[in-house]
Design goal:
Layout lengths: L1 H20 L8 H13 L1 E3 L13 H4 L27 E3 L6 E5 L5 E3 L15 E3 L4 E2 L2 E2 L12 E3 L12 E4 L13 E3 L4 E3 L14 E3 L6 E2 L3 H4 L7 E3 L4 E5 L12 E3 L4 E3 L14 E3 L9 E2 L13 E3 L4 E7 L11 E3 L4 E5 L12 E3 L19 E3 L11 H6 L8 E3 L6 E3 L13 E3 L4 E3 L13 E3 L6 E2 L13 E3 L4 E2 L15 E3 L6 E2 L14 E3 L4 E2 L5 H6 L8 H6 L2
Helix pairs in contact: 1-2
Length: 564
């Protein structure tokens, strides 16, 4: 095999050398392109650990607004000399001429570098190039990428990512962006760029989607280049170091549908001009660092009737918010107002859009919840860190207990009193997270909590008493069970050991008593964290208990081999 690649390398060297003397030569025959791609393949190694660094975005509003990377696999493994490249995984050819027009190696577990001599640049007919989610490292983005004169889609995002190290780096090239007369999609997110946004970006007149998020650009949002992108539909500058105000000039981008400016250091109120962008479907201004956005939520926000998600969490917005400001946003699916200085109120007839699925009103001064009546499709409901003192009757009967799609319910850090409603246990079988910690609940744990989808149940820091209901044995996907800091009074619940996925069990600071007994050594086989302190257990810990905790054991195979 090595002799074969030496041979095709020899042929390709002379082909490429001759093409520099005769620039008019274009590779269109599938066999020529196969040689080029096989050389490109040989410049990379396969690194299966690439699948580990793709982040899991848990926020629902991200899941409905961002494309996720599919599970990674080595796409180039299907490439070989016995078949034409047009049949290879990740390669698409023009059906008439046979030219390679699309190369999608995203999530391809590639590890290596691309320099200016790469055979990749000998594919002049490319219209789509996607190398995202690999480990392309040790090289800057070559300006020769500008030679792809027919390119419509370029995605080099999330390369070389390992912890905080980004290896595909450098100042964003500012010379040849004017070559991209046809480029409509540019994604260079999560690459360590330095300096300011170059005005030359404005030369890409056909650009519709621009993704430049992730830890690099500094200075202000310099509008001069951006303002000439009249076709722009999506602008993503999230997660940089941009500072200063949100410029009113952005309102000239009349085709803009999505605007991501979150996780920067922007300041001042939201400019009124921004609300003239009537095509806007997504607005993300969350978590804008130390110089946060301030002032009241403008009532003009209600004019953005096409919004599907709105995220303005972790800012310094203040004043009162009438729920009716969102009622005309009939497409709204996600609303994230977490961690501001706002008070939410509603009138008797106030409603939320029926389409809403993600609602985060954590850390607010909420006193009543009548508006939840109009939100039957909720997927995530977060009302934590508020001053709610009781669960109104309308919640269990009309809202929470009838939410067939609800996966996350967070009522933690409030002042709820009384018993946990029994209907909580009858909730949708899709419920995954139930968090009611740090309240004033009394009585017993509902005896009908048995959802197979439940992964987390957190009831710590309440005044619950009695036994742990045996119905929890049916929650076979439970990973976290925290019942600490209550008044539970029972023997050690050894039967919880049958839960095959339980990794965290906290029973501390209760009134559990008696001996700790286990039925088999296979009990608690996945357990990694166990808290039993401040109870009334007696006797010794059974050796079988420690034999069961196989997931707590960490074996250094390298060290073990070295000592053999």
């Amino acid at each position: 095999m090595s002799n074969y690649f030496q041979f095709i390398s020899f042929l390709l060297y002379y082909s490429l050398y001759y093409s520099t003397l005769c620039p008019a030569i274009q590779y269109s025959h599938p066999h020529d392109q196969s040689l080029i791609l096989l050389i490109f393949k040989e410049s990379f190694n396969i690194d299966q650990s690439n699948s580990d660094y793709i982040s899991d975005q848990t926020s629902y509003y991200l899941s409905i607004s961002r494309n996720r990377c599919q599970p990674s696999y080595p796409k180039t493994n299907s490439w070989n000399e016995s078949t034409y490249c047009c049949s290879w995984d990740g390669v698409t050819c023009d059906k008439i001429m046979g030219n390679v027009v699309e190369l999608d190696l995203s999530c391809g577990q590639l590890s290596g570098s691309i320099d200016s001599n790469s055979s990749l640049f000998r594919l002049p007919h490319l219209r789509r190039l996607n190398l995202a989610y690999n480990r392309i490292s040790g090289s800057k983005i070559s300006m020769i990428f500008g030679n792809f004169s027919q390119l419509e889609h370029l995605n080099l995002s999330s390369n070389g990512f390992s912890g905080r190290n980004y290896h595909l780096y450098g100042v964003l090239p500012s010379v040849r962006w004017n070559s991209y007369r046809t480029l409509e999609w540019l994604d260079l997110s999560y690459i360590q760029f330095l300096g300011k946004l170059p005005d030359s970006i404005g030369n890409m007149k056909a650009l519709k989607r621009l993704h430049l998020s992730g830890y690099g650009f500094s200075g202000t949002i310099k509008p001069f280049g951006l303002l000439s992108l009249s076709s722009l539909q999506k602008l993503d500058l999230e997660g940089n170091q941009l500072s200063g105000p949100i410029l009113m000039e952005l309102s000239s981008l009349v085709n803009l549908q999505e605007l991501y400016l979150g996780s920067n250091q922007l300041s001042s109120p939201i400019p009124m001009e921004l609300f003239s962008l009537v095509n806007l479907q997504g607005l993300d201004l969350e978590d804008l660092g130390s110089n946060q956005l301030s002032g009241p939520i403008p009532t003009e926000l209600s004019s953005l009737v096409n919004l599907t998600f709105l995220a303005i969490s972790s800012n310094n917005f203040s004043g009162h918010v009438d729920v009716n400001i969102f009622s005309n946003m009939k497409q709204l699916q996600a609303l994230d107002l977490f961690d501001n200085k706002l008070s939410v109120f509603s009138r008797n007839n106030s409603t939320l859009p029926a389409s809403i699925r993600y609602l985060d009103l954590a850390s607010y001064n909420i006193t009543e919840l009548e508006f939840l009546r109009s939100a039957p499709k909720l997927f995530v409901l977060d009302l934590s860190i508020n001053n709610i003192t009781e669960i109104p009757r309308m919640i269990p009967s009309s809202i929470v207990c009838r939410l067939e799609s609800l996966k996350v319910l967070d009522l933690s850090n409030n002042m709820f009193t009384g018993s946990i409603p029994q209907c909580i246990g009858n909730m949708s079988q899709s419920l995954s997270i139930l968090d009611m910690r740090m309240n004033e609940f009394e009585g017993t744990i509902p005896s009908n909590i048995s959802s197979r989808s439940l992964t987390t149940l957190n009831l710590q820091f309440n005044h619950l008493r009695g036994n742990i209901p045996s119905s929890l044995a049916k929650c076979v996907n439970s990973k976290v069970l925290d019942l600490s800091n209550n008044n539970l009074n029972a023997s050690f619940p050894s039967w919880l050991g049958i839960l095959p996925n339980l990794t965290v069990l906290s029973l501390r600071s209760n009134r559990f008593h008696g001996k700790i007994l286990l039925s088999t050594t296979s009990s608690f086989s996945k357990l990694q964290i166990l808290y039993l302190s401040r109870n009334q257990f007696i006797g010794t810990l059974p050796p079988m208990l420690f034999q069961s905790f196989s997931s707590m054991m960490e074996i250094d195979q390298t060290s073990k081999a070295a000592n053999c």
